[in-house]
Amino acid sequence: MNDLDKFQKLINIIKKLRAPGGCDWDRKQTSTSLIPYLTEEAYEVIDAIEQSDTSALREELGDLLLHVLFQAEIRSEKNDFDIFDSIDSVCNKLIKRHPEVFNDSDKDNLVEKGSWEKRKKIEKNRKSILEGVPNSLPGLLRARRIQEKASSVGFDWKNHRPVIEKIQEELDEVNDAIKNHGKEEVIMEIGDLLFAVVNLSRFFEIDPERALKKSTNKFIKRFNSIEERIKLDGGEIKEYTSDFMESLWNEIKKDE
Hints:
This protein is an all-alpha fold.
């Protein structure tokens, strides 16, 4: 069986599951009802990549592809489009947005800074370069994509030093809001601080979501160590003071 046959086999399996006499669960699904599963599969792909687990990545990419084809099959049943229309669309998009690669007449032309975003803006009749970033993206990733889009047309700091100064400025404004303003103002200022921190991570080509995840996992590991030490002493964590737990934390941190 060649690769195209394998692709068609998966499509045929989905069609059979959706057909009369197929799987009751699959038949009742809609594009909307599948969103949680599609989201979960995308994150499982990310987990496999971050863990450098080749075997898991192979499996999770298959699961994600299943949901891509499932979504396309639902639309095909409504005579909207099928997966091959989607493939054709993305092929045309890639060729159109890379004239310097696919168009011989543009082989010798340099790619203009921000040209990808400018082409998308024209193609999709967008009013702003910043349009097109999904609202449903996690906040840190959405902030990064917005910043990247602005940077692509030259709206950016020249280096990271003023970004660090901006972080300090935003932190001062958080302190001022806490002392002199209400909760809504504190929310806004903390948001500005996070946005500035995301900007700093972008300058060093660091994924802020991944950086935060690593720090969260580090916190979990150290906190679990505190729990284990207290358990060995025969105690309950709620019985100990925060000062005592902080001293344990510092010991664990030092041992690392």
